[in-house]
Amino acid sequence: MVEKAVALSALLFVLGALGALTRRNLIVILMSIELMLNAVNLALVAFSRQWGDLAGHVFVLMVIVVAAAEVAVGLGIVLSLFRNRESVNVEDVSLLKW
Amino acid sequence: MIDLLFYLFAALAVAGALGMLLNVKNTVAGALSLVGTMVSLGAIYVLLDAYLIGVLQILVYAGAILVVFLFVVMLLNLRQDVFSPERLRGTKLLGVVIGALVCVELILLVPSALGPAAGIPADFGGYRALGAALFTDWVLAFEVTSLLLLAAMVGAVILAKRSID
Amino acid sequence: MVEAGAYPLLRWIVLLPLLAAAIHGVALALLRRPLGRTATLLLSVGAPAVAFVIAFLALIRLIAAPPEQRVLSDLLFTWIGAGSFSADVAFLLDPLSAVMTLVVTGVGTLIHVYSVGYMDDDHREDRGFQRFFCYLNLFLFSMLVLVLGDNLVLMFLGWEGVGLCSYLLIGFWFSDRWNAYCGSKAFIVNRIGDFGFLIGIFLLFWSLAEVDAATVNFRELAEALPRIAEQTVTLPSWLGFLPGAPTWKLTTLIGICFFLGAAGKSAQIPLYIWLPDAMAGPTPVSALIHAATMVTAGVYMVCRLDFLYAVSPGASALIAWTGAITAIFAATIAIAQTDIKKVLAYSTVSQLGYMFLAAGCGAYSAAIFHVVTHAFFKALLFLGSGAVILAMHHEQDIDKMGGLRAHIPWTHRWFLLGVLAIAGFPFMSGFYSKDEILLSAWLAHDLPGHQVLYAIALATAGLTAFYMLRLHFRTFLGESRVPLEQRPHIHDPVQWILAPLAVLGVLSVFGGFLGPSAALNPVPGVAPEHSNSLANFLASALHGAQHEVAFATERWLAVTSVAVAGLGALLAAWLYLWSPQLPARIRTVLAGLHRWVANKYYVDEAYDAVFVRPVVSFSENVLYRGIDVGLIDDAAVNGSAHFVRGFASGVLRHFQSGLTQGYLFLVALGTLAIASYLVAG
After folding, report:
1. C555 lies in the same domain as C666
2. Which end of chain C has fewer CB atoms within 10 angstroms, the N or the C?
3. How far is B73 from chain A (nearest CA, A)?
């Protein structure tokens, strides 16, 4: 089952990456990033189960904490952006264009 | 039996992910399908003997993080997503193809690298074992994450304020 | 090696003209104020005159010393010192260089005096009185360095210097592009010869270095040469058609290289083409440079390296044959020329051929004797022709002259003396020196085909008499073809011009008594130790072939040459004095031949087609358009600029789109790449 879990993790990661690269709604992008992080968590748990090492679980805990913090700050940014530009379309925030 | 459950929850997870991805018009629906994914993943964690993690997954991810997402979506009153399919069709297809390739590559790679399964103790993944590890071997990481959370809190508050006075 | 006596005055022979040139140059270039006329005269005429006096005093010192110790030297400083090799700026006065120095400074002074009168009359816009004297003195300096230098490198410095001054002076009236072209031609052809000179120096030095005797000093070279005298080189197989192949003596190869340089400087075949065109310069320049001094530098060089040519029979044979063929070739061209100076130019080429013939036969002192007498009468002839040109207001075509004897009697008299001298009138200077040369050709038994050489030289003597007398008759005697309105304006030139003519005239007549052969002594009973004095004087420096010959043979040879010359003179008189309509009829009958000869056998045109045009075309199309403009400018410089611009605007621009997802995509790609690398490796 561990191999299947890892396979699932890969699939979910790729889906999350596709979503982050393709969708233009900032919120959806952030959600796709969450999906990627979850895929990584799944892989970590699977490996931890395979080798009986609890370090994997601890790592997962850290990832969850980081994801939470990132969501908080990221959504704060989205809010500020929305207040200034009335849009959450990621193509509208291209001030770094050459 | 366990395998069957695993397949079931795996299918649910993927369905939820696809639901979020392919949903163009309704962001709330997309967030909610992602909740489904999170819960399925929590179930899979339990199947993998990671009990505490599974519970935490549902509590934190499904119950907190995605709720925050929903709050923000509703706060911003987003209904429509601007998404013009004509322009991105070619690159979307390319992306899908590349993604499929990467996925297949990863799937093929891993089993050969896994090695033999190790035996696990009975309370593997329970709160007692994880707590002991967290507060003895990994206590530094634990403390640092508390700092991280503090920083995130302060940042979120400042970013979301209407004005700084 | 004999210890050379120190003579510190030697340096002033060289430095005085340099000083004069420098003062003129500074005045012209920096102060931009020409010196007053008196100052210019004192400086420019005084410098060579004082140099002549010093040279004369040194000569007296030399004569007073016993024959084995006739060497004076003056060391200024070490110019190049590298390890055991050193080339000094040092001057060496031995009999050979003493004779040359006296000729250069003496004739030079006379020509400077002449130039005062000549350039005064010059009314062109780019008159340049002072510039002329600056260049003239610079030339004298270079020539003296060439003659007095004690090593090959210093001699080469002087060699190049005279080439440069020749260019400056030929193209003196540079506002006429033709003059500038002639100057360039002289310089470029000289440079081809200089290439040979340099290769010779390198070969000599290298071969001597292999036997641990590396030097460029002449006296050390003379001592060290026997060590490589028997070495041979193997020619590559594609040169197998050359005589004596495949093994040649090393010294022969070196000698040929040096002779290439001499051929360039002294206008022998195949590098003589610059000298007739060099007549575009003012007449004093032609007299000084292209008659008396610079062109004899090649002869001097060959005689200076007599120790080399003594052990290189192949090179000596080449020199003799080249000289002989050049002599007759140039003489045939001269008989059909109608410009006074061109006739004299080809005559110079021909007489230089005589000198090389003598040098090739081993009679170096005969060659130097002819250098001396040729300097006298050729300078006289050129200066005289300059006087004629001035009188005719810069008309140089002899077909428009004639009967000038009545108008410019003194010029006519001195010119006639010069003509007689070059033709070999008995007991004049040319007679003695030419007979020495004919004698040396007759006696050169080691040289293959020396009888043919003698025959060629004899025929050339006849031709010389013919064309010189032709020139004289057409210019001064007979019916006057000068336009009527010009006739009253023709008069003898000023004293500045006539005085040098007189001095040179006297020298042309009596100069032969410097070294007459004992057999041809005009005054019987005079002690034999006074004859051959020049040869005896030079014998301590030159080591030519020694021959014993009976007086009777010498006298018969002399009679033969006088007879042949007389025939030539009679022919000239018949065609140009007694039956002046004959030449025109001959010209129409032999029209094709005449056109060939009058156009110098189209050699210049041939060179132009074979060498000049391809090189210029290659340079223009391949090197300039192809490589410089096309490759370097367009492809390399502009091309790289275009490439950078295209690359940046086409490719690099998309990396900075400002779109977050673009950047994300790149991040993903990079991560994928690293992950693949880690997994694969």
Report:
1. no
2. C
3. 8
Query: Does B145 lie at the interface with A, CB-CB under 8 angstroms?
Result: yes
Pairing of strands C5-6, C72-82: parallel
Q: Which helix (H) or strand (E) holds C246?
A: none
For residues B18 and B76, state if they share a domain: yes
Is the ipTM above a cut-off of 0.85?
yes
Q: Is residue C110 part of a domain?
A: yes
Chain A hits for B117, CB-CB cut-off 8 Å, are 2, 50-51
Same domain, C531 and C674: no
Q: Three-class SS of residue C462? A: helix
Q: Are residues C482 and C608 in the same domain?
A: no
Nearest chain C residue to A14 by CA: give it.
Answer: C668
Which of C125-134, C185-194, C307-316, C581-590 shows the lowest per-residue confidence on average (mean pLDDT)? C125-134
Q: Which pair of tokens denotes residue C560?
A: 């033969």
Contact A21 C661 (CB under 8 A): yes
According to DSSP, residue C337 is labeled: -
The radius of gyration computed from the CA coordinates of chain B, to the nearest angstrom, equals 20
Which chains pack against B, by 3+ Cβ pairs within 8 A? A
CA-nearest residue of chain A to C652? A98
Count how many residues are written for chain B.
Answer: 165
**Check whether domain A2-84 has CATH 3.40.30.10, yes or no:** no
Residues C560 and C623 placed together within one structural domain of the fold:
no
- Maximum Cα–Cα distance across chain B: 61
Under 8 Å CB pairs connecting chains A and B tally to: 225
Which chains border C (3 or more CB–CB pairs < 8 Å)? A
Element (H, E) at C234: strand C232-234
Q: Is the C-alpha dihedral spanning B117, B122, B126, B128 positive or negative?
A: negative
* B106 lies in some domain: no
3-state secondary structure of B1: coil
Q: Which residue has the tokens 């110790």?
A: C69
pLDDT category of residue C533 using cuts at 50, 70 and 90: low
- Same domain as C432, residue C339: yes
In three-state secondary structure terms, C414 is helix
Q: For residue B70, give its domain range.
A: 1-82
